[in-house]
Amino acid sequence: MRKKVGIIGLGKITQLKHLYNLFNSQNFKIEAICDISEKLVDEVGELYNVPYRFNNYQEMYELPLDIIMVLTHDHAQPIIDSLKAGFDVFTEKPLCWTESEALEIEHAKKESGKQVIIGYMKRYMPNYIDLKKQIQEMKDKKLINVKTLASGTKYRVPMSHKVFKDSRLKTIEVSGNNQTIEKIMTEYGFTKQQAEDYRMLVELGIHNLNLLIDLFGEPVKIDYADMWSSRKEEPAINSDVFVKSNVSAHRMLVCILEFQGGIKCVWEIGAFFDGEQEYIDKITINDLSEELTIKFPNPFIRGLPLTFETNRIIDNVPSLSVNTMFLEDCFKSELDNLYLTIDTNSIPRTPLEEGKRDINWIKKIIKTIKYE
Questions:
Q1: Rounded distance, CA 359 to CA 98, Å?
Q2: What pLDDT sits at residue 289?
Q3: Distance from first CA to last CA of the chain, Å, rounded?
Q4: Helix (H) or strand (E) segment spanning residue 371
Q5: Cα(146)–Cα(338) distance, rounded to whole angstroms?
Q6: What are the CA-CA distances from residue 311 to residues 124, 185, 288, 306 (Å)?
Q7: For residue 201, with 0-12 CB atoms within 10 Å meaning exposed, 13-18 middle and 19 or more buried, which class applies?
Q8: Would you say the pTM of this structure is higher than 0.85?
Q9: How far apart are the C-alpha atoms of 5 and 21, rounded to whole Å?
């Protein structure tokens, strides 16, 4: 039987990925949607023929839904409210912004007896079990390189897919971002720059951090971390793309993590969404005889390939093998796993505890950086 879903938040990633895959799923039915924008609720509701549409998610709880999907920018309060209302919850990453929020969610989950599943979609690659085995069998792993350069979305996304927008939300978005920064500053004792860098790493780095920890265990230590602004010129005056100073300043991260066995990981992240260079998101793992590279495409564009490249020496001859799937396959596999989790009340592959752990590691990285 198809599970009835209630969706909170109708932003870009909801429209480009979640709604599209839910609509085409045999296991789920989009029963209700909610957003503070009446315009988005009407337009998305008509496109997907959604029977129940709300601007206040509390009203959604009166329906006999099977699961709530929290796809807003700030996840903590909708997660807590949905758990208290008696629903299992799927949430986009991150679980939340701060450790105190994570503790509140943890308490609400314990009291409700319901599940919280985090949308770390890279952990749902259809070949993930085989991939993990291949990496574990690499006998003398020496170096991991993780690189994310978030670029090339300003013009390419509108050319690829229709995304409904409501320009009237801009002021609310700016206010919400400012409140998030203030919340992080207050709880962690961060400066404004530290808080902005923390948020950037949570938004752009937490997927790969979660993947690394699942593959190699938690880091033994942080050897080095630094962040800086790579942009020298001022952003365009008339640009309405940015509301985040860490993005408009082109903030960059270089971090070196050490994992069990002395394996070093060089981690690079850059945020410059107004650039049109290629979107880069890849993980490379090296041992003495093999190199494996996983290349993820721009998540905001449908239909792009996800590739796995393996370089080996076989009988003294260099060999390159390339396997390909699509990022949509990860989202489909994630939905299949989500259905199984709530149907059998089993332990999620990507549970609440991982989200709590991951934001703690981001905090540790920020605290390692020597700010002037």
A1: 7
A2: 86
A3: 58
A4: none
A5: 28
A6: 24, 45, 11, 17
A7: buried
A8: yes
A9: 12
E runs forming strands in 19-133: 28-34, 52-54, 67-70, 88-92, 116-119
- Angular region, 329: left φ>0, alpha ψ -120 to 50, beta rest: alpha
Peptide bond into 351 cis (omega under 30): no
User: For position 241, what pLDDT does the model report?
Assistant: 43
Six-digit token string for 273 = 């969404």
pLDDT of residue 126: 94
Residue written as token pair 């890849």: 282
pLDDT at 274: 64
Host H or E run for residue 292: strand 290-295
Quote the CA–CA distance of 1 and 164 in Å, as a whole number.
31
β-strand partners of 252? 228, 270
How many Å apart are CA 327 and CA 306, to the nearest integer? Answer: 6
* Pairing relationship of beta strands 52-54 and 28-34 according to DSSP bridges: parallel
In order, the DSSP letters of 137-203 are: T-TT--EEEEEEEE---TTHHHHH------GGGHHHHHHHHHHHHHHHHHHH---HHHHHHHHHHHH
Look-up of token digits 């989500």: 338
Mean pLDDT by 10 residues, the chain (372 residues): 97 93 96 97 97 98 98 97 98 98 98 97 96 92 94 68 89 92 97 96 97 98 94 53 56 96 96 75 93 94 92 88 94 96 96 98 98 86
H helices, E strands: number in the chain: 13, 14
- Contact at 8 Å (CB) between 335 and 21? yes
